[in-house]
Design brief:
The protein is mostly beta strands and about 775 residues long. The protein is built from nine helices and 55 strands.
Amino acid sequence: KYASEISPTVTYAARFWGNHFNLTSDSEAVEFIDAIYFFCKTKLANWVETLSLLNKSGQIPSIAPLATAKLSAAVTADQKKIQFIKTILDDSSRLVSRFSTPLTYNPLQLYQSAIPWLPQSTEFYATYYKTGIMPRVSIHALHGWGPLVLEGHGENLSDIKISADDGNFAVSGSFDAAMKLWDLGTGECIASFEHDDCVNSVAISKSAVKTAAAGFLVAGTTNGRVFVWSLATGKCTRTIVVTGHDDAADVNSLRLSGDDSMLVVGQTGKFSAWLLSTEKQIILKEDEDFESGSFLVGCDAAFTANNTLVLLKIAGNDLSVVDIAGVKKRVLLTGHATEISRAILSADCQFAVSIDVTSVLNVWAVETGQCVASWESKIEPYVLFNLAISGDNKTVALRSSENGLKIWSVETLQCLRSIRLADDFGAIALSGDGNSTVAVDEATVKVFNSKEADEADYLCDYDYLSSDGTVVAFSPARSKTVQVWSVVEHRQLCSIQHLEWIRRIKISADNSFVVVQDGKSLTLWSSETGISRGSISNVDADDFEISDDGLFVVVVMKESVQVWSIETLILRSQISAVPPELNVSKKMTHHASRFTKALLFHKNQKLITGNGQGLVHVWSAESSNNCLLLKLDDLKELWDLKLFAQSAQNDDKEDPGFTSIGDIRFSGDGKFATAYSVFRYNNVTEHVECTWNLENGKCVEKVSYGDREPESLNKYGGGGESNLMVDGEWVINTGGNKKLCWVPAEKRGEMSKWKSRGNIVLFSGWNSSA
């Protein structure tokens, strides 16, 4: 609707200035540098805004590379200005990619919902962020753009390789039967090659380094075929049929020789070598002692500089390096104390990398058999993982199903990066100089700087915002530290170091202390000084909560709920998992009766617990005697606990049902409580939230989400934690597609136009017709 208000001249210039600059001669390009520098320094945000108003912001990632390509030819111009232009144009491309939604629906949100959230180290942020006018991100601001994300495959990826020398290109294979070539500088997909079967493995020739128009790519498929594709013509020039049958036919790995003349193909149980010019298999002398399974026994194969094929074999705690040309063991690599589970060869066969079941990583010099580096990777033992080593043999990357992606320097043995990915396990590759790491992440490829931290390193495993919103505590991903920040003062209050991984964090109501769980202990820390106030040991807590007045901490364990004094760290009371009056069936599973949630409102001296039977109890905080039982069976259509109990006693019932309390919250005055629970019975799932009056135990309202878990719930144990916000007498639930607003008495008269039941107003969606 804004297009008609922008002149055709401005519209054309905004869309095509990059194309015109790209078409200038090298000498003309130099003359334009000052003008483009001024434009990027003063008007670039207006350019992004204009294209957003025209609904053409998606063109920016293609316009910017056209301009930067011509800048490289302006060798006589001011190189500092050229570097600034290149950097800020790249920032603009990443900006529109990350903030496409707000820019599409409201382009002027560029200044409020995009620029303030940019990584603060970027040129775009430094140039266009206005202090005092735009919002400020004071905590957890991004440190970098994060990985370059390559998107285009329709299904999960199977393999990834980087061009050997300069690392400018990458090739990916996917279960969507496509192989794609990517420009790692711009993230552009240069070419795509389609196959009839899933692409299991890929390789890229060294002649494809200087330009994507030269050289060739290789794809191995699940039907035992290898396809060689010319980048000049985009056509398949060779097809090699590798012997095999059933699963053994899958081409699991591909490696080219240094001169790109030969190819080694790895399949389940064997390797084979091929001369590409003739498509003929190279006959290798058999080694009866060598089991050449590239995956089953963790072996690898590669060519030396003189095109000799070398195979790596795992033999318990040792490695054998076998020269296939002469069928002889070149060297035996000995040094692991436990069984080796994975090993790889470097591209030049000069080094080998191995990891054993206790997570010790060794780097070996193949010629001498010496271990040149060894360190403990600190990954979980007996997990799936992938290994990679850079072309210069100075950087090692390891990806495990439990610990994500880790990158190490072989020279210093320091962990350079620790990155979490959505996909637990997938292919990884390092550039020749080790500066870039690419990782398969489901259907995308992510390109990381191997040595500089970005936003991926600053993701939180756990974070907690204080009840008044003035203090936040968080644990950076995969770390043993907790940082406490003042939101109001924009400063870090303290940094807390633990000996084990952080499991949970909570802040007291007055923000004076933080309780952190690591392993089987809870430690209390001063929020201001970071000094420990003591610990509660040997508590394997599934959850814990701090009381409203900060005097107690309630620890939830499967077998019991414990109430500890904050001041003395003495156990004040304990409730067993199965009170006698609740033992409704001897055949009830033990898990169903375990506690899942507990909360203490000490001003009213009430302790609320929820368990695996879907029951909520209110206890006296002083005596631990059951004073009120809140049943859900008054909602017959959803929660018939009598039916549940009967089915649990019936030997003929295969599915006795399962229900569990996932979250509990008090109202601000402690007179009401809301609980979330999920019920599963005979393949039917029901998610529901109920609010009770704690004075009479009656349910005053319920919200059902049907079989869909509310979007606001974080999976936890048998249920989740609902987004119940408590503010004085207000209780608001924003989960899923239904909104429950509990209106204070003085406001009810104003709400008569809504569909109201007592003091409950239910919104079925935020829209004009609600």
